[in-house]
């Protein structure tokens, strides 16, 4: 049965894809602004160094200076104005920071700044702060701030270290180049599609080969902007593999496609968490297709892709798993090419690979299997496809993965055993592979129907058959109460 395609855009007043925030990240320009730092300790020196790096004029109130603060004394932006902050008029400061010697001192500093309307931070006293310093990744003008709302600073530092490894040092040079070109580019490019096309090409440059801009890159970028502005903006479609569900299995290339999309047409099986990673302004439309349920017609999906691409939009067709594995991408590619629409494919991790990883096994272990097959478990009629070579599929030296075979599991087992496959051949049945609610059953081929019934048909089901799954079966058999203790796994 066909069903209408429906948009799932969030209401403009309260975007559903923004969850609760412990704090609001705000970036404050401080170049030339007067700020107050009270205390000469190492902690105060670190805050003063950050403020000076942001271009602030720092007034320091300190009776004594530690070695770290003394090392900053020659900085032209640091002004030692006395020993006691109480002698100052705080109302002229943009922000104020103190490393107070005691609780009473901290409360007094906080109260004085609050009374003057100055944002204040008393170091290591969260109850005396109106703002916080987070962990920083510095690729200025690209600056990344990380906060845990004071709950776990060590976690913030761990996140910072991970981001440091992802962002090349040369990103700072590319950011500076973009800043120099901004006014000239704005005069050439409209802020709509042309601007985004150029922007995507620009931001792709620092990452594949993290080198600083060459001497001629400025001229080349301006020339490219001129070509983009002069050419009619043609739309495109990218078929993107979303993987089996775990957002961390999304590829970097898929992430970039989602971040640059104008329209995202996504399937029922795509994890909602993945849509949180997409460009916020992108129009999202559910075009669900799932076996055994009412679905959008393929013709309607094709028509939507053509419509938006002809409007000059960058369309992402987001498919669960890998688009080339039972994703009907061939029909969509043929339709788009026939209409002259540019189309590209971003592969994703298919469910069979994710299941093997989750079971810590390999689909082609050389002691068990010399080949692996991916087979569809149902046809358009909802039954097994006609013409399957069951004699070949019964080969014990091959691992066979049946996609979408939950309802046809009894017939699969019967065909394989009729062609001579051993009744005790290890089998695994899994639903929602790689997701938090993944469920598995392991057992012999003779009990495959029972396993499929245990897992159920409501969620995407994958069936693996082959001796490579013997270890998974043995582990499940060794813990007979697993079904109660960990619902994700059971054994026959």
Question: How does this structure look, described?
Answer:
With 492 residues, this protein is an alpha/beta fold. It contains 17 helices and 19 strands. A 6-stranded mixed sheet has the order 1-11-10-12-9-13, with helices on both faces. A 6-stranded mixed sheet has the order 14-15-18-16-17-19, with helices on both faces. The radius of gyration is 30 Å and the shape is elongated.
Largest sheet: 6 strands, mixed
Portion of residues in helices? 25-40%
The Cα radius of gyration reads 30 Å
The chain-level mean pLDDT equals: 86
**Sequence stretches where pLDDT stays below 50 over 5 or more residues:** 6-15, 480-489
Which tags fit this structure?
492 residues; alpha/beta; 6-stranded mixed beta sheet; 19 strands; 34% helix; 18% strand
In summary, what is this structure?
This protein is α/β, with parallel strands linked by helices and 492 residues long. Helices cover 34% and strands 18% of the residues. The chain is built from 17 helices and 19 strands.
């Amino acid at each position: 049965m066909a069903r209408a395609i429906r948009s799932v855009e969030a209401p403009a007043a309260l975007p559903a894809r923004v969850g609760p925030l412990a704090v609001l990240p705000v970036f404050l320009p401080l170049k030339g602004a007067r700020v107050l730092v009270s205390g000469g300790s190492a902690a105060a020196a670190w805050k003063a160094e950050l403020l000076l790096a942001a271009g602030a004029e720092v007034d320091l109130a300190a009776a004594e200076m530690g070695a770290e603060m003394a090392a900053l004394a020659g900085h032209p932006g640091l002004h030692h104005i006395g020993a006691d902050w109480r002698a100052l008029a705080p109302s002229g400061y943009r922000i104020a920071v103190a490393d107070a010697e005691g609780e009473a001192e901290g409360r007094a500093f906080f109260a004085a700044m609050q009374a003057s309307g100055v944002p204040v931070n008393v170091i290591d006293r969260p109850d005396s702060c109106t703002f916080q310093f987070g962990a920083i990744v510095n690729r200025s003008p690209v600056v990344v701030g990380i906060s845990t709302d004071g709950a776990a600073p060590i976690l913030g530092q761990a996140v910072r270290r991970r981001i440091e490894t992802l962002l090349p040092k040369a990103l700072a040079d590319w950011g500076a180049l973009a800043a120099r070109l901004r006014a000239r580019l704005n005069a050439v490019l409209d802020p709509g599609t042309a601007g985004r096309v150029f922007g995507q090409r620009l931001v792709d440059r620092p990452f594949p080969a993290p080198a600083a801009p060459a001497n001629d890159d400025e001229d080349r970028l301006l020339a490219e902007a001129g070509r983009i502005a002069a050419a009619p903006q043609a739309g495109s479609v990218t078929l993107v593999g979303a993987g089996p569900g775990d957002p961390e299995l999304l590829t970097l290339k898929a992430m970039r496609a989602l971040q640059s999309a104008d329209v995202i047409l996504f399937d029922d099986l795509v994890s909602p968490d993945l849509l949180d990673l997409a460009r916020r302004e992108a129009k999202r439309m559910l075009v669900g297709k799932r076996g055994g349920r009412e679905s959008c017609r393929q013709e309607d999906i094709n028509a939507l892709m053509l419509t938006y691409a002809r409007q000059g939009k960058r369309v992402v067709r987001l498919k669960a798993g890998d688009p080339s594995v039972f994703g009907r991408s061939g029909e969509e590619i043929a339709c788009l090419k026939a209409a002259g629409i540019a189309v590209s494919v971003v592969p994703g991790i298919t469910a069979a690979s994710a299941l093997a990883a989750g079971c810590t096994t390999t689909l082609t272990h050389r002691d068990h299997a010399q080949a692996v097959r991916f087979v569809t478990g149902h046809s358009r009629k909802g039954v097994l496809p006609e013409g399957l070579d069951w004699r070949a599929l019964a080969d014990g030296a091959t691992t066979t993965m049946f996609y979408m075979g939950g309802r046809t599991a009894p017939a699969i087992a019967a065909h394989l055993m009729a062609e001579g496959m051993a009744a005790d051949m290890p089998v695994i049945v899994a639903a929602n592979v790689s997701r938090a609610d993944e469920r598995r059953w392991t057992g012999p081929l003779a009990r495959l129907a029972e396993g499929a019934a245990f897992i159920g048909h409501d969620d995407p089901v994958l069936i693996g058959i082959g001796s490579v799954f013997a270890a998974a079966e043995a582990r499940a058999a060794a813990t007979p109460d697993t079904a109660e203790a960990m619902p994700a796994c059971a054994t026959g």
